[in-house]
Amino acid sequence: MRKRYLDWLRGVAVIAMVMAHVTDAWTLNADKTRQLYVYVVFVAGLAAPLFLFLAGLTLAMAASARASSLGHAAAAAMARLRGWQIFALAFIFRLQSQLLGWGALSNFLKVDILNVMGLTMLAAGTFWSISASRAIRLAAFAGATAALTMLTPLVREVPWLSPLPDPIEAYIRPIAGRTTFTIFPWSGFLFAGAIAGELISAARSVAAERRLQAGLVLAGAAGIGLGYWASFQSSIYPVANFWTSSPTFFFIRLGICTAMVPAAWVIDRFHEVVHARFGRLPGGVLATLGRSSFFVYWIHVEMVYGVVGRPLRRLLPLEASLTATLVLCGILYAIVRWKDRVMDGRELPRQLRILAPVLR
Question: Can the peptide bond before residue 185 be classed as cis, meaning omega within 30 degrees of 0?
């Protein structure tokens, strides 16, 4: 059964993502020194952790649902196949960007969120396959999350990774011009999401889900509070940057992502009550954008950074960029509705089925 509150949450991530890209590409350089811009960057910067978290959550939930009908091995194989599919789509997206005129050919090998997401989903599917016991899988996901997070400051500094070819090293740690996201620590958000997905799958009753959501509130608050407290303590690492490699900032963002799940659940329950009492209410915009989040990602990047958005590059005051974010979200919503009407009841030809995550 589809959890509508997760679609709402993906919709929030979509709006944060569009805001991140619009304010980055269209805002005046002078306005990027304002305190308001710092706040905008922090909020918009939650989009990527939230998308990775929700990808892991969905993978674990889907695998658990399929296991009951197809068996554990088949469900794990489908989870791994999904990872390969997302990884392949990362290169198709880059190919599209090259054909539309984005920079040097070397950009084709740039590591972005889809590259990291695909490989991590493949790894999470492999972890999911190790046991039919949910407790063992939870321990594996938790161990992976902790290891990726705590090792990040060390991985950023070790010299023995330098001989690796740049396209490979860029998956492990940042290389200027070659990577936006790296496995350390970004994959940790997806593995943590898989923990949440396992727990949601295990909550089979209304009472159990209510208890789970309360537990997620506490877990999220603990992550935020402990991360914030630890940020003021002496670092255990020789070199660590709070905003890029520090486990403290990772767990603050993970705590926020975790707490957003029960927040979306509460809002959805409230919406249901008000809808039942007063009739139809608005609320489908976020869910619609959330259900088509991959499609929105696919098309809006070109709209912001490509030919369409080039005339606005670095020309808007910050407030105008924020207004443009809302306008663009409205345009994207209309495009998504059109796409849904066109695709309703249609099967993709075999040669285009790899695009199913984008077009469905």
Answer: yes
